[in-house]
Fold:
Amino acid sequence: MNIPFLGKWRLGRPTNGGEGLAAAFENDPDAVTGLFSECELLRSQAAAAGLELDDSAASLDALDQLLPRWRDDPELAPWLGNDAGLYLGTVIVRHVPGAAWHVWPAGQAVVRLPSGREIHVVEEGLDWAVSGSPELYRIYAEASED
Structure:
């Protein structure tokens, strides 16, 4: 079946979510940054363990000390790791002068430091959620020294 207007409609749409994220970040970086900082799953898991995440470097250290109960649920760890990476990025952007979010055209969110170095925070968060290494606070400390 050939429906001409659908072909034109699909051509004007991003082909994957990453392109949409990059466009959204370009159009309204503050709104996307706000979404990055929500980290709802991580915040609820931390609250259940008695930890309030206040977007401070100390909260990263406290997260590193949590007993990783989420590793018992293989479906939870990747989602929690994504949130942990976005939370790490949020803390770095808020406390390291000159650090800023950057979204690549494919949709990968990274934190760019003033030196030009980029931290792939979501990848770091996923590694942390699955294996506990690297520690989130250590990544923050390295970024603050950069």
